[in-house]
Amino acid sequence: MKTILITGAGSGLGAELAKQWANEGNHIVLVGRTKQKLEGVQRSIKNGSSSIYTCDISDSKQVAELMEALEKNETVVDLLVNNAGVGAFGALEEIPIEDIHQVLDTNVKGTIFLTQALLKTLKKGGGRVMNIISTAGLKGKNHESVYVASKYAVRGFTESLWKELEDTNASATAVYMGGMDTPFWSDTDHVKDSSRLKSPSEKAKQIIHLDEGQKEIFIDR
Ligand SMILES: NC(=O)c1ccc[n+]([C@@H]2O[C@H](COP(=O)([O-])OP(=O)(O)OC[C@H]3O[C@@H](n4cnc5c(N)ncnc54)[C@H](OP(=O)(O)O)[C@@H]3O)[C@@H](O)[C@H]2O)c1
């Protein structure tokens, strides 16, 4: 049994990974900003166990509080899944400044804060960081400049971790996938009909199936 901390576990891919990994008997630490969403996912976990921690990962103070709470509860994380992410789409000159901050603060800084905070534990226990990127971390896309920039940053961060962790017990995995039908698209018309995209349940299944601790997992390219 592993203890797997998943950020953004209240919906979409994070929720599906949580349910499927829990089903395999792992303990899942569900992290997100909205308690009710995390509680909903916790209720849907039939096998395995889970715990809930609310945290805005873009806020380093909240991340430090999360670490304190985990320590207090003697929760030792084996696998950190940096999954929480937000988008901002459209012509660059039309993207509000606050949205640019939110995308970079969540996708990039949030991933870095969580990884930095847990690295000592992961190194000690032979643990791993899994960063959920996107095909947006592989190629530029029209009207996705800010989102793509954030995902390239996470890719660069992950590839640098490979070097930094070379002589340690810890490791890092980058995961690349294309569109999924999740609430990610609910505040934008960038994707006209998200119901045509693949289900997050299917993508979670593929990730878990393909995951053998390797450096990269390509679900789509
Ligand atoms: N959907 C796609 O087409 C697609 C394709 C490729 C890659 N991805 C990536 O897959 C990951 C999961 O996305 P998804 O599609 O499953 O979207 P989603 O359903 O919107 O899930 C994202 C989760 O992140 C949480 N979150 C957002 N900001 C946060 C913050 N500051 N602190 C903590 N939690 C935060 C949200 O919950 P709260 O608001 O309650 O915090 C939400 O549950 C993202 O990294 C996304 O970039 C998505």
UniProtKB/TrEMBL annotation:
It comes from Guptibacillus hwajinpoensis. Belongs to the short-chain dehydrogenases/reductases (SDR) family. Residues 2-188 form the Ketoreductase domain. GO terms for molecular function: oxidoreductase activity. Keywords: Oxidoreductase. InterPro entries: KR_dom, NAD(P)-bd_dom_sf, SDR_fam. The keyword Oxidoreductase applies. SUPFAM superfamilies: NAD(P)-binding Rossmann-fold domains. This is Short-chain dehydrogenase. Coiled coil: none annotated.
